[in-house]
Amino acid sequence: MIAITGASGHLGKATLEFLLRKTTPESIVALVRDPQKLADFADKGISIRQSDYADKASFVTSLAGVDTLLLISSAALGDERVTQHSNVINAAKEAGVKHIFYTSAPNPSLESSFTPAVDHFRTEALIKESGLTYTIFRNNLYLDVLPMVVGDAAKTGKLYFPAGDGKTSFALRRDMAEALANALTSEGHDNQIYDIGATTAWSFSDLANSISLAGTTVDYIDIPSSDYEAELAKHLPPVAVKIYAGMAEGIKKGDFDTPSPTLAKLLGREPVSLQDYFKTLG
Ligand SMILES: NC(=O)c1ccc[n+]([C@@H]2O[C@H](COP(=O)([O-])OP(=O)(O)OC[C@H]3O[C@@H](n4cnc5c(N)ncnc54)[C@H](OP(=O)(O)O)[C@@H]3O)[C@@H](O)[C@H]2O)c1
Question: Where does the secretion signal sit in this chain (predicted)?
């Protein structure tokens, strides 16, 4: 049986949908805090079990009979997030899970300016120490987050961001979900670490060109980090400012510049590109 944590989230739900095309509903377990959120999947025959990352015992129970587990990283931060992940990894061991998949980030390191990548580094280490067979998907940034980053640049003609010439191998969350479902239901992924993203990488100038397609010309203006942080601080709490500013710094340093053929191989086609994504948005 295959179980998925975070099954009520965007990535989890999309992975469930793709899994249903690959295997029977009886062999899928969705792990959620609130089973009501997945009532439509329960109707399709998927087993829905209640568990909370903060409660290890809930996972020991809900992982009974599960061979393969996809741990979708928690939305918490720092020590709380790593403790939550540790609960799931230890429960998986106790419950007899054989293979754990985990959604990480590119170039995780204790020195990452993008602080979620520090948590991913620590979680990857826990997974390797656990002795479980593992497959780590180092998911690059979602294309899906770009409309929020771009804001009204298509109207103003100016895209302000502090990423220098840094490039990112963005990919669509839905493509990552399809690749996860394909890997969860196929062989050959034991103890592998995959860079999951586009086969190329795009700069913020490329991004500006992509949103210029609608007929307007958008210029990318590389601004100082301090200006970006000051702007974010007008709208967001300090913890969120740190994450977004850290992400921009990571992009500038090349931490997200990880083009790889792996996602395309897992999909059997090219993933959706930056340009095609904005074309479909219109
Ligand atoms: N690569 C990127 O660009 C990017 C961007 C954003 C996030 N991420 C990471 O990727 C993960 C998946 O992305 P997503 O878009 O699917 O995020 P999402 O839609 O926010 O889903 C997060 C999932 O985590 C579950 N969750 C949160 N706290 C939990 C807890 N204590 N116990 C059990 N479940 C808990 C949520 O359950 P509820 O429905 O009960 O809240 C939800 O199902 C995120 O959690 C984050 O770590 C990556």
Answer: none
